Amino acid sequence: MATDRRKEDCLDFSDVKRTRSTNLAQLTKLYKELEKNLISYENVEHAKQLYSKLCERFEQFKLAHLQCLDLCTQSEVIENLEVNYERCHENFVEFRDRFSQYIASEKSHEEEIPEESDTVSIDSSLSSRSSVSSQSRFRSAKAKRLIAELKLRKLSEQHELERAQIEIKFRQQVQTF
User: Fold this and answer.
1) Comparing C-alpha atoms, which of 75, 103, 102, 80 is closest to residue 21?
2) pLDDT tens across 66-100, in order?
3) How far, in whole angstroms, is CA 128 from its chain's centroid?
4) Do residues 81 and 65 touch, judged by C-beta distance below 8 A?
């Protein structure tokens, strides 16, 4: 009876984790599509619709993430899920800020005709985007480092456990002789 319940929990967790992964993949797809639209002000309404979808998808991702945490029993998996979620949340907040800047600059873009001096602000805007991108890469690298450290610690503990088991078997064999 207890093993049936564990199998059911495992299936539930697998289903929820799959839903979480699907939402994350769809978030990535929406980010890429929105990035293409933020290059110019030709499709502002379409960009707004995509952004609305992005916000809805992030809420679905967050809900699936919380369900994963509720169903998961392994601390290492929970820690990995949390690291991944934090990175996703930071990316979402950064993108939300960039989108707000895009909308604000779009309104001023409608009011003004670009002059020579405006190319400087465009260049600084692009520089700002690359800075955000490098910050995102830094966070991603940091998360990967934390995951690698966790795996290394887990592997080290596993080796220590195996060594202890071998030592116990050896002592038992010595005692039987």
Assistant:
1) 80
2) 999 999 999 999 999 999 999 999 999 999 999 99
3) 22
4) yes
